[in-house]
Design brief:
The protein has 304 residues and is of the alpha/beta class. It is 38% helix and 16% strand. Helix 2 links the parallel strand 3 and strand 4. The chain is globular. GO terms for molecular function: carboxylic ester hydrolase activity.
Length: 304
């Protein structure tokens, strides 16, 4: 009983936080250490409907971001993790799809950095971005004195246009590729396409084109090359979704960045085999924990 009471007394403190926004506030969780707060960070979720804990209704469970936050709190690092605009508790903050741009997500991350610094009393905070969140973090950190440095986990290392071209090249019938690539060329040039091919409407529908135009211009290699504060690149060696070669590209662009390759971990930073089906099956296995190496590597980097 005494041991349980002591453990409860030493538990991190979880506090709901709200960020003013239009058309509705954004919501997150501030997790502070029971003892001294030695540093503070914002955890930025990856793509799709991923919530503050790292879960998604399309098949990701187990809360790896929550686990990361809890482990960092044990080491003296406070964190804010938040539901992105339009997701989970921040659903009411969704804007019309035609008005949503990648820049809006970057602006949100910058605002969360300011709020986290205010709430924790730190002069600056770290941005910990996962997957697409790493790209958002890079853009939000540029020329931003409120950001101490970056932790980029499972980061994308090339512009989105190159990735989309590869995916279309591998998945489309040959007859459809010229038209698809022509639409992508127009979007990369900053021009919308009024009537994209019906078969490609899910990707290129007119209402999503403003977002794609703003996303396609973001260059992760250029961002990291220009960044002069500390950077940690962390990648699972078993990541089959965004291979570790992406981190290698970023490390080449910014030789001062530190690199941590986690043996046996996949894109969601869990132990996983290289077999594709078995690897992807771990995304939905809530019993699997965050890889044991991740939080110590992040905390050691932030606190040293």
């Amino acid at each position: 009983m005494l041991t349980l009471a002591a453990a409860l007394l030493l538990s991190p403190v979880s506090t709901p936080v709200e960020l003013a926004s239009s058309p509705a506030p954004l919501h997150g969780t501030l997790l502070t250490p029971e003892g001294e707060t030695r540093a503070a960070a914002v955890i930025i979720a990856g793509s799709g409907p991923t919530d503050r804990d790292g879960n998604s209704p399309v098949g990701v469970t187990g809360g790896v971001y929550r686990q990361l936050a809890e482990s960092l709190a044990e080491r003296g690092v406070a964190t804010v993790r938040y539901d992105k605009r339009g997701i989970a508790a921040s659903a009411a903050a969704a804007t019309d799809e035609a008005k949503l741009t990648f820049d809006a997500l970057i602006d949100d991350a910058r605002a969360w950095a300011r709020l986290t610094a205010e709430r924790t009393g730190r002069p600056c905070v770290w941005l910990i971005g996962h997957s697409e969140g790493a790209l958002i973090g890079q853009a939000a950190a540029a020329d931003n004195p409120k950001v101490c440095g970056l932790v980029l986990l499972s980061p994308v290392g090339e512009r989105a246009g190159a990735l989309i071209r590869r995916q279309l090249g591998a998945g489309l019938p040959e007859a459809m590729k010229p038209e698809a690539f022509a639409v992508l060329d127009e979007l990369e040039a900053g021009r919308t396409v009024a009537n994209p091919p019906p078969a490609l409407a899910a990707l290129f529908r007119p209402s999503v084109q403003p977002y794609l135009i703003s996303y396609l211009v973001v260059d992760p290699e250029a961002l990291i090359a220009d960044y002069d504060r500390p950077v940690l690149l962390g990648h699972g060696a078993a990541d089959i979704q965004v291979p570790p070669s992406n981190t290698e590209r970023l490390a080449k662009a910014q030789p001062k960045a530190e690199v941590a390759i986690f043996d046996g971990l996949n894109h969601v930073l869990r132990p996983a085999p290289l077999d594709r089906a078995a690897n992807l099956a771990t995304y939905g296995d809530a019993a699997l924990p965050l890889g044991a190496e991740v939080a110590p590597a992040v905390a050691d980097f932030i606190l040293k």
